[in-house]
Amino acid sequence: MRRRRFLTLLGGAASWPMLVRAQQPALPLVGLVTGGASEASARFIAAFRKGLAETGYVENQNVRVEYHWLEGRQEHLPELMADLVGRNVAVIATPTFTPAALAAKAATSTIPIVFAVSGNAVELGLVASLARPGGNASGFNLLNQEVTTKRLRLLHDLIPKAVHIALMVNPPNASITQAMIRDAQQGAAAFGMQIQICKAATIDEIDAVFAGFANKRPDALLAAPDSFFTSRRTQLAALTARDKLPACYAVRELVEAGGLMSYGSDLADAFRQVGSYTGQVLKGTPPAELPVVQSTKIELVLNLKTAKSLDIEVPPAILATADDVIE
Questions:
Q1: Same domain, residue pair 292 and 305
Q2: From start to end of 96-233, where are the E strands?
């Protein structure tokens, strides 16, 4: 303290502007954690920044954002959340990555958490109720899990002869995996389908799943909504193209990579919504006062180029209801 006082007196008025700048409070830090890959996430980052801007926040001007892309490596979540909590970040944002939201909730009861999850936030234990979250977390419920039966119906309408459906799930994402298996098995019965459960949590395990199809080939592939699968979309596109296997996904990114069809929430819009809620929290609104919103933006995306390569003629009725068609 004595040395600082001495330098201030020595510098006189000329040193005041520098001291004033040095004493300005640090920008609030947002820790964003998701399961995708950074090299394929430019659209998501832009959407998150757009959401922040809707509430008056611009990255590196009045807020800092620290991005953590886990690429499906969920085992690092406890350590990462402990680090974010230890540094007392202003907000932990977990768009489209349910395991991160659960890990954040387990790590802190005080730091605000803004999530976008597949599944019911109440059933996941993230909030007390949708209208009144009542704790330090709020955000958005995506309908990627709830529309499993609709995806099966679309597969049935698109490929009427498809009976054996391979359901690929990521076991470490336990809440999604359990619900998907349950919903797929229940929904399949209505269309005379049989579900073959395939588990993959690593790059090698995805390869192993497709290698196993040589012995028991399915008529189509249905992938669970999981950020790990989204991050491996190039690998999945190459394997399904090699095996000429129709694939139905939850998000458009896998169709843009070469998948046949997707039906589910728009991930970029989910990132935008999380950015907007994050901005509201930074402005002082506690998550307990922000109701959990159910996403209503569901889109059907078709890849006609892939359909042609698979000798699939898309019915006009499905084409007419598609939100986007890749030709």
A1: no
A2: 113-118, 137-142, 164-169, 194-199, 220-223
Number of separate domains in the chain: 2
For residue 1, being part of any structural domain is answered with no
pLDDT at 146: 64
Lowest-pLDDT choice from 44-48, 179-183, 309-313: 179-183
- Over residues 236-295, the pLDDT tens digits come to 999 999 999 999 999 899 999 999 999 998 889 999 999 999 999 999 999 999 999 987
Q: Report pTM.
A: 0.81
Helix (H) or strand (E) holding 69: strand 64-69
Looking at the structure, tell me whether residues 87 and 98 fall in a common domain: yes
pLDDT at 1: 37
Q: Decide if 72 is inside a domain.
A: yes
The residue range of the domain holding 74 is 6-143+267-297
pLDDT bucket at 37, cuts 50 / 70 / 90: confident
Backbone angles phi, psi at 206, to 5 degrees: -65, -45
Please give the structure tokens belonging to residue 299. 């889109």
Contacts of 10 (CB under 8 A, 6+ apart): none
Whichever domain contains 127, its CATH number is: 3.40.50.2300
DSSP 15-55: GHHHHHHHTSPPPPEEEEEESS-GGG-HHHHHHHHHHHHHT
Calpha distance 306→18 (Å, rounded): 61
* Average pLDDT over all residues of the chain: 88
Residues 31 and 165 in one domain: no
Of residues 103, 124, 100, 116, the one with CA closest to residue 265 = 116
